[in-house]
Design brief:
There is one protein chain. The protein is an alpha/beta fold and about 290 residues long. Helix content is about 25%, strand content about 30%. The chain has a seven-stranded mixed beta sheet with strand order 3-2-1-4-5-6-7, with helices on both faces. The protein has a five-stranded antiparallel beta sheet with strand order 8-9-12-11-10. A hairpin with a 2-residue loop joins strand 8 and strand 9. Helix 1 runs parallel beside helix 6. The longest helix has 25 residues. This is Formyl transferase N-terminal domain-containing protein.
Length: about 290
C-alpha cells in the first residue's frame, strides 16, 4: 500500500490592512498564518473590534496613504491581505519583492468594483450578491480571481442585509481562497477578470440626492432602497426644507392616486403619524422614515 506523504505548510506571515473584520477572523483562527502587522482604518469595524479586544494594531486615515506605502515596502511579511483598504496599493513594486497580494471584495467581480460598491446592488438593479478574493493588481479590483461565490438577491433583503450577507460571504470566499493557495503551494494563477462584463460603482452625494419634482417613482424608490441605512440615507429639499430619507414605498391605492392627481410634484400631500405622502412626476410615494435637517 502506497504511503501518502502530507507536506507540512510553513507558517506565512501576514500584513493585514483594511476596515472590515471578514479576513481578520479567518486568519486569527488559522494556524497556518501569523498576523504580523495590522493596519486598521480609524473608527472602522476592524479598528473598533481590535480596540475592544485590546489587540495591538496601527490606525490610519486616507491622508496617511504615503506613510502606509512606505511601511508596506519596509517591513517583513509573506502575504498582504487587504479587506476594505480605501486606496490603491502598489502592486507592481510589492510583487517584485516576492509578496503574495490578496484583496477580498464584497461583490461578485467584475461587477461593482470600487471602494463603496454595495449601494450599487439596488442602484444598478442587480439580481445577485457575491464576494471575491483576488490578486491585487495596479487596477481597481481587477486582478485574477482566486475564488468567488454569489447568491440570488431575494425580495426580503434590504440594504442592511445586503451589507451583512456580503461581509459574511467575504469570510467564506477568503477561507476557500486560502485553501486553494495552500493546495497549490501558493503558486496559483487564478482566473482572469473581464472588466468589460462588469461595472464600477462608488457612493456619491449626487447618487444619494432625490429630486421629487422631476424624478419618477421608480427612480426615487431605487435610490431610497440603495441607501436606507442609518449612516447614509437620501437627500432631498422638500418645500424649502432639507430632508434625509431612509425608507419609503410606492402608493398603489386608486383612491389616493385619484384624489391627489392634479397636485404638483414635490408637494407634501398628507402627513400622518411618522409618515407623509409626497407627489412625484408619475405618482405618489409614502415616506416612512426620515429626518429634517436644521
Amino acid at each position: 500500500m502506497e504511503e501518502k506523504v502530507v507536506e507540512c505548510l510553513q507558517m506565512k506571515e501576514v500584513f493585514l490592512i483594511g476596515n472590515r473584520l471578514s479576513c481578520y477572523k479567518i486568519l486569527a483562527n488559522n494556524s497556518n498564518y501569523s498576523i504580523r502587522h495590522i493596519w486598521a482604518k480609524t473608527n472602522s469595524l476592524l479598528d473598533t473590534f481590535l480596540n475592544e479586544k485590546e489587540i495591538s494594531h496601527n490606525r490610519f486615515d486616507i491622508q496617511d496613504k504615503q506613510h502606509v506605502m512606505d511601511v508596506l515596502a519596509e517591513v517583513d511579511y509573506d502575504i498582504l491581505v487587504s479587506n476594505g483598504c480605501p486606496f490603491i496599493l502598489p502592486a507592481t513594486s510589492l510583487k517584485q519583492q516576492g509578496k503574495i497580494l490578496l484583496n477580498t471584495h464584497p461583490t461578485f467581480l467584475p461587477h461593482l468594483r470600487g471602494a463603496t460598491p454595495l449601494n450599487g446592488v439596488f442602484y444598478k438593479d442587480y439580481k445577485f450578491l457575491g464576494a471575491s478574493t483576488h490578486y491585487i493588481s495596479d487596477s481597481i479590483d481587477s486582478g485574477n480571481i482566486v475564488y468567488q461565490e454569489k447568491m440570488d438577491l431575494t425580495d426580503d433583503l434590504d440594504q442592511g442585509l445586503v451589507y451583512y450577507l456580503s461581509f459574511e460571504m467575504e469570510g467564506v470566499v477568503f477561507q476557500k481562497a486560502l485553501k486553494i493557495l495552500e493546495e497549490n503551494g501558493y503558486d496559483y494563477e487564478g482566473t482572469i477578470v473581464d472588466v468589460s462584463n462588469g461595472c464600477y460603482f462608488n457612493r456619491t452625494i449626487d447618487k444619494q440626492t432625490i429630486d421629487f419634482e422631476n424624478e419618477q417613482v421608480s427612480d426615487c424608490i431605487r435610490k431610497i432602497k440603495s441607501f436606507n441605512i442609518p449612516s447614509q440615507g437620501c437627500f432631498a429639499v422638500i418645500e424649502g426644507k432639507k430632508y434625509v430619507i431612509y425608507d419609503g414605498e410606492k402608493i398603489q391605492n386608486a383612491f389616493i392616486l385619484n384624489k391627489f392627481e392634479l397636485d404638483y410634484p414635490g408637494k407634501i400631500l398628507l402627513e400622518y403619524g411618522d409618515s407623509f405622502l409626497i407627489k412625484v412626476a408619475d405618482g405618489i410615494i409614502k415616506i416612512t422614515k426620515y429626518k429634517i435637517e436644521n
